[in-house]
Every structure is written in structure tokens, then in C-alpha cells.
Design brief:
There is one protein chain. By secondary structure, the protein is of the alpha+beta class. It contains 5 helices and 17 strands. The strands form 4 sheets. Strands 1, 2, 3, 4, 5, 8, 11, 12, 15 and 17 form a 10-stranded mixed β-sheet that branches.
């Protein structure tokens, strides 16, 4: 008799205390995805790439104050896109959400950006208005995978630039194991190729020189005889969110364990031409083993990466 699987796929909207919204410029091919935490979240992070564009990531450090984070922002625009966080802060401040300093409540907002300036228009980037619009969209809480929000300008397989790259997007996946819930949201914008870890098949990446089929980015990289200035338009950014109760230090460990999904699905990954970042957020009170939660987070993230190409 076949044993029943422990994991059950669920809509990400079943995760308590989380709302997700998107906004984008379809012509410029850039956008914003925001994760709003209604009651705050314990947040850790893992940064493995060499060129991250980020805002307030020190809030995730185990040695900084243990204050709840109010939002995580994923956006396009490279470092220019960090301006989108201003609109998220404005939205939260208008609703009285933030850390109470005694004089004003300061919203705590972490953000990471992908480089999408090589597709669409390079002179149009996410700004405060787009960040605010993503928050308004989060009120509907109807997230979806594909070419939307921060994923609208995402591409993969860019060793030789955009000419041989392929379109990617944002992926979302969520599961439950008993009362524990785990969700992943990821914007796949990698230098490398994308694989299905279940069967080892390549699903996206560097196209052949003739535009037909795939080339192997790792093999191409190995054949470079000298130091090369790689096409630096890559960053896979994402977050896992759980209703498990963990400390900030434990969330940092879960974020680092989630990185295993990047290694399973993206080759090469974490290069100096990438800015790969993963946030891990705890919004609930379900007791769970950290080893199980970190292992589950990596599996859920791997599924989310596949859905960026669905």
C-alpha cells in the first residue's frame, strides 16, 4: 500500500498574516511584488550572490534589534528600484503600521531588486508610486505566478547577454504539513540555466548560438580561457514564509537551508555576476522542528522556481 505523502499543496492565500500584491509597467518590462505582514514577521536572510541590490537587510541580522518586519519588497530596476520601498513605507505609515519610536511609527521594510534594465526600457524603473500601487493590489490578495510584478522583466541564461537569454518570471508555491504551512515566492533572473530537480531536465536557459535548442552555461563557462566580465544582469530573489514560530536566528538558518533549492535548480548559481538573496519570514505560532522546516522550505522553493516558467 502506497504511503500517503505528508505535504499537501495549498493556495498561498491560506498563509495567515501575509498579503501579496503586484504592480508593473508592461511596456518598460519592470515591476514590484510586495509581501505585507499584517502583524509583522520575524525575518532572516541569506545573500549568496556577489552583487545584491538591497534595502534594510541588516534588519534580518541576528545581532540587530529583534523588531518585526512589516514588508518585504521584490522589485526590478536594479539599485534604482529601491525607490519602490518609499511607496511601501508611505502606504504603511498612512495605516499606522511600523515600529513605534515614540514620535512616529517607522515602517520596517526590507527589499531586494533584480537587474531588468536590459529588457524593455532601461530609463523606466520602479518608483514610490509603483511600490504604493503594489500595496493597494495586496488588499485583493490575488497573487499569481508568471510574467507579473517583479518578474515581468526577469530572464535567464545570460552568459552571452540578452541575445541568447530566455524569458522567466515569478513563481509561487505553498504547502501544508499538518498545521505547519510553508510558502515560497521567487523572481528567477539568473545568469545560469534552470533545471527540474525531479528529473534533471533543463527547462530554460542559454540558447544555442544558432538560436535553436539549449547550450550548457556551465560548459561554456569552463571554456572561457581568461577572466571575463560576465553579463551582470542577474539576481534570483525570493522569500519563504511560514506560520511556524521561530527566532530571528532560526529564520536566518532556514533562509540558508532554502538556498539548497537554488543549487538544485540553477546552474551555475551564486556567482559574482548574481545577487542572489532569500528572505525567510515567520508569521505564526505553530511549533515545528527547524530541521524539518528548513528542508521543507528548500523543497517548496524548488517548486516555486519551476512555476516561474509555467
Amino acid at each position: 500500500m502506497e504511503k500517503k505523502k505528508a505535504c499537501k499543496e495549498i493556495p498561498i492565500t491560506e498563509l495567515e498574516g501575509l498579503r501579496i500584491g503586484n504592480a508593473q509597467d508592461d511596456e518598460a518590462r519592470t515591476g514590484v511584488t510586495v509581501l505585507l505582514f499584517e502583524k509583522g514577521a520575524k525575518v532572516g536572510a541569506d545573500i549568496s550572490g556577489g552583487g545584491p541590490a538591497s534595502r534594510e537587510t541588516p534588519l534580518t541580522s541576528s545581532i540587530t534589534a529583534d523588531n518585526p518586519v512589516n514588508a518585504i519588497v521584490l522589485s526590478g530596476g536594479s539599485a534604482f528600484g529601491l525607490a519602490a520601498g518609499d511607496g511601501v513605507m508611505r502606504y504603511l505609515e498612512e495605516r499606522g503600521i511600523g515600529y513605534d519610536t515614540g514620535y512616529v511609527k517607522v515602517p520596517l521594510v526590507c527589499q531586494s531588486c533584480i537587474y531588468d534594465l536590459g529588457i524593455g526600457r532601461s530609463d523606466v524603473r520602479p518608483d514610490g508610486a509603483m511600490g504604493y500601487a503594489a500595496c493597494v493590489d495586496a488588499e485583493k490578495n490575488c497573487p499569481r505566478s508568471g510574467s507579473v510584478g517583479a518578474g515581468i522583466g526577469a530572464t535567464v541564461g545570460k552568459l552571452y547577454g540578452m541575445e541568447r537569454a530566455m524569458k522567466a518570471g515569478i513563481g509561487i508555491h505553498a504547502v501544508s504539513v499538518g498545521t505547519l504551512k510553508m510558502a515560497a515566492i521567487v523572481v528567477v533572473n539568473a545568469l545560469g540555466d534552470i533545471y527540474d530537480p525531479g528529473n534533471g531536465q533543463k527547462i530554460a536557459g542559454l540558447r544555442g548560438a544558432d538560436g535553436q535548442g539549449f547550450a550548457d552555461t556551465c560548459e561554456e563557462l569552463y571554456q572561457l580561457s581568461q577572466r571575463t566580465d560576465l553579463f551582470r544582469s542577474n539576481t534570483t530573489i525570493g522569500a519563504v514564509v511560514t506560520n511556524g514560530v521561530f527566532s530571528k536566528a532560526e529564520m536566518n538558518k532556514i533562509a540558508s537551508m532554502t538556498r539548497n533549492a537554488y543549487a538544485r535548480c540553477i546552474r551555475p548559481v551564486g556567482t559574482m555576476a548574481d545577487g542572489d538573496t532569500i528572505y525567510a519570514a515567520s508569521t505564526g505560532e505553530v511549533e515545528a522542528d527547524i530541521n524539518m522546516a528548513g528542508t521543507l522550505a528548500a523543497d517548496v522553493m524548488a517548486c516555486a522556481i519551476q512555476k516561474a516558467f509555467a
